[in-house]
Amino acid sequence: MYEPKIIGYLCTYCSYPGADLAGTSRLKYPPNVNIIRVLCSGRVSPELILRTFREGADGVLVAGCHFGDCHFINGNHRTAKRIPILKKILEYAGMEPQRLRLEWISASEGERFAEVVEEFTETIRGLPPMKEVLR
Amino acid sequence: MKRMEPLKRAVAEALKEWDGVLALRSAWGGVAPHLFCREEELDGLALWPKYPLPRTLQLIQRAHPESRLGIVARGCEERGLIEMAKRNQIDLERIRVIGLACTAEEAQICPCSKPYPSILTDMVIGERIEPVADKAVEEFLAKSSEERLEFWKSQFSKCIKCYACRTACPQCFCPECTLEDALWVEIGRIPPPFPSFHLVRAMHTVGKCVGCRECELSCPAHIPLTTLYTLIRREVEELFGYQTGESLEAKPPLVLPMEMET
Amino acid sequence: MVSVGQHENIEILSFSEVEEVSGYVGNFEVKVRKKARYVKEELCNGCGLCQEKCPARNIPSEFDCGIGSRKAIYMPFPQAIPRIPVIDKVNCIYFQKGRCRACEKLCPREAVDFEQEDRILDLEVGTIIVATGFDLFDCTRAPQYGYGRLDNVLTSLEFERMINSQGPTGGKVLLKDGRVPQSVAILHCIGSRDENYNEYCSRVCCMYSLKFAHLVRDSIGAQVYELYIDMRTFGKGYEEFYKRLMKEDVIFIRGKGAEVTDVAERPREEGKLIVKCEDTLLGELRRIPVDMVILSNGLEPRRDATQTARLFGLSRSRDGFFLEKHPKLAPVETASDGILIAGACQGPKDIPDTVAQAGAAAAVALSMMDMGKWTLEPSIAQVDVERCSGCGECLLACPYKAIELVEGRAQVSETLCKGCGTCVGHCLPKAITLLHFTDEQLVAEMQGALLELEVV
């Protein structure tokens, strides 16, 4: 059975501790997401996201701090601009833009993280594996 | 309206003050860029086919930083100059633009959002015409998601990774190019694996592509690159309010924090 | 507080606000607005004559929770340090109507100065401790308790002021009509442990509620009902105090007060406040008629916590209090090096715990200043000038303005760069890299992560 593979790029000061909190709170969420920590969501480049899809990720989650809470003042603003335009490019290329998801998750939102992973995994499960799309 | 005679007169006039005017001359059945320095040379002035001059101007300016140069620029070339200047690639203080408006015929072959310059110069040779709708873009928009994927898969499968699109682009001025980096585009595969090369390039056009079509015109495989890039340019305008090439003051769209109060 | 005021190494900037913070650990620049109090601090000796003689009276006193009153020139509370009054522009007759100036005329030291202006101070400091405290839960948000609508429903702080011997009633417990109450109900957990308001426990209320019970029994001997969910008497001597109160004939009802009403259903409820609750130990619904109700309202982050957090770059936990670096191992540090938090602004706590945290924060600050050096995170951005086109986009992308163009190529300032990598995420030719988070490293991680997901 097809189990989607999702890579999450999470920022060190908000979304990663948020995911950590989901773990320490023993919240259940699907095991389909593997997390890669970056210092700020602003670090995530479009090239990295595209390479992630090419390597076989069916979905990519980019998570950062809520506006106003970014540990690096407003690195997340640039993420907030980059991701939507990349999604539009995916859309025009005929690739489902919902494979790329941007979320703002704070250090205390363990439940939100689990929710997002749950939702996103289901969304990706409903799409064909990326390997087939890129063949 | 005939443009050749008024253009020749404008260039001749300019040569009295400036060191040279960059424009096109007839050569080998086509055109070639030429730095006109003397009035006598103007017999060879040519207007079509279109050929992008901004990067050539940059090269000349780099070699002769003190020079005062003119350039005969169409709408797209003016836009290209604006985006280059914004990124410190060219010094507009020492450059004067002689505007050239595209004819209706030219605009049919090469549709864009504004077929005449209007920002860097008041002097525009030729009649300013209304922009011509890009049929290829409209046709593309009617396609479904699956059709779009099939379309680009088949188009990009023709790509021989010649980098002509990159080389011809007035905005591609980076000393080293991401598209040549194995980390982002697998080396040694023709066509390059879908969709790395082309979507990385597409992302790089954000806030830079001015719709000059040089990429498409130089592509030996006739891949309709402009269709994709035009759609992206429209999104950039809608998402960020950024009209590529239309303002010297507006900062590149992805780099500044949001204005909204949070 | 007096010893703090007299210490030569401590400068108290009262009636002042931080407007801007910039810089980094060891090198903070803080802009402080010292607001005009219209009294010259260097001349005033705190004699209080101005306060006595000011004709603008009956202004509700903030310190006395509106129960007592003050003048337009006033000291915020009797123990205020520095012992210098402030003029309230809104109520001062001179500022409003151009007349009076009695304080100016009468001051023996000529310390009143109506022309005084705000001053901006630029401070250079190495460390910052944020100890901005808390606000109490606003009981008007819980209208079922009748606060603000019914007479004799008081918040904890209002009762605290009432029973204080220097308070507006001189320490006498009185109803609004001047009578002494015969019965008092103290309702725990107002606004706390409640899905409708704040889910957390405010930690201090059980003890202060017991304290009130004791003081009521002691001063007026009224019947006291304590309505509680759990009795959280966790500290040194706290449980013993609770036991003592049980011997003082305080009636403990295990059941949170649900409603306070003045609608009587039977003769003995006439003219009283009726507290409705479920007595869970008895398993019965009860109506308890009393003369006075004290709402033990909980602690919340200050109303301006959002602005304070932005100012100092603090994160907040789910409950809104400032976020510590680690709940167990670093309770007074924050994610921003050099900025520490202490006290109730980090989470509800009582005085002993606050003092302990204050000591901890001071110790951390001292150790930083003593070391004189700080180890920077090694993750900083670096430019490969061969690849850089000088386009300058990274300059605009950097939240810290840590990049500048030098000889046409980007250059990163190692001290200003915090390693966020936003420039790296943006750079088109990938001319700028982030040490320890390079593209090669992230791609390798990603490949490994995907391999691991193969077996899911």
Walk me through this protein's architecture.
The complex is a heterotrimer of chains A (135), B (262) and C (456). By secondary structure, chain A is α/β, with parallel strands linked by helices. Chain A has five helices and four strands. The longest helix of chain A is centred in the middle third of the chain and has 18 residues, at 75-92. With 262 residues, chain B is of the alpha/beta class. Chain B contains ten helices and six strands. In chain B, helix 4 links the parallel strand 5 and strand 6 (124-125). Chain B starts with a helix and ends in a 22-residue tail after the last helix. By secondary structure, chain C is α/β, with parallel strands linked by helices. In chain C, helix 5 runs parallel beside helix 6 and helix 6 (205-219) packs parallel to helix 7 (238-247). The relative contact order of chain C is 0.10. The mean pLDDT of chain C is 94. Classes of the chains: A alpha/beta (135), B alpha/beta (262), C alpha/beta (456). Chains in contact: A-B, A-C, B-C. The A-B interface holds A 46-47, 50-51, 54, 67-68, 74, 77-78, 80-82, 84-86, 88-96, 133-134 and B 143, 145-153, 178, 183-184, 193-196, 198-200, 202-203, 206, 228, 231-232, 235-236, 239-240, 253-258, 262.
SS elements, strand count of chain B = 6
The percent range for helix content of chain B is 25-40%
Helical/strand content category of chain A: alpha/beta
Strand proportion of chain B, as a percent range, falls in: 5-15%
Instruction: Report the helical percentage of chain A.
Output: 40-55%
Structural class of chain B: alpha/beta
Main sheet properties of chain B: 6 strands, mixed
Radius of gyration of chain A, whole Å = 14 Å
What does the average pLDDT of chain B come to? Answer: 92
Fill in the keyword field for this structure.
heterotrimer, A: 135 residues, alpha/beta, 4-stranded parallel β-sheet, 5 helices, 4 strands, 17% strand, B: 262 residues, 6-stranded mixed β-sheet, 36% helix
Q: What's the topology here?
A:
The complex is a heterotrimer of chains A (135), B (262) and C (456).
Chain A: E1 6-11, H1 15-24, E2 33-38, H2 46-54, E3 59-64, H3 75-92, E4 100-104, H4 110-125, H5 130-134
Parallel strand pairs in A: 1-2, 1-3, 3-4
Helix pairs in contact in A: 1-4
Chain B: H1 4-15, E1 20-27, E2 30-36, E3 45-46, H2 54-63, E4 69-73, H3 75-86, E5 95-100, H4 104-109, E6 124-125, H5 135-141, H6 145-156, H7 164-168, H8 196-204, H9 214-218, H10 225-240
Parallel strand pairs in B: 1-4, 4-5, 5-6
Antiparallel strand pairs in B: 1-2, 1-3
Chain C: H1 2-6, E1 16-24, E2 27-34, H2 49-53, E3 59-60, E4 69-70, E5 73-74, E6 86-87, H3 93-97, H4 102-106, E7 119-125, E8 128-130, E9 134-136, E10 153-155, H5 156-163, E11 183-190, H6 205-219, E12 223-228, H7 238-247, E13 251-254, E14 257-261, E15 273-279, E16 284-290, E17 292-297, E18 299-301, H8 305-312, E19 339-341, H9 351-371, E20 381-383, H10 393-397, E21 403-406, E22 409-412, H11 422-426, E23 432-434, H12 439-453
Parallel strand pairs in C: 8-19, 10-17, 11-12, 11-17, 12-13
Antiparallel strand pairs in C: 1-2, 2-7, 3-4, 5-6, 9-18, 14-15, 15-16, 20-23, 21-22
Helix pairs in contact in C: 5-6, 6-7
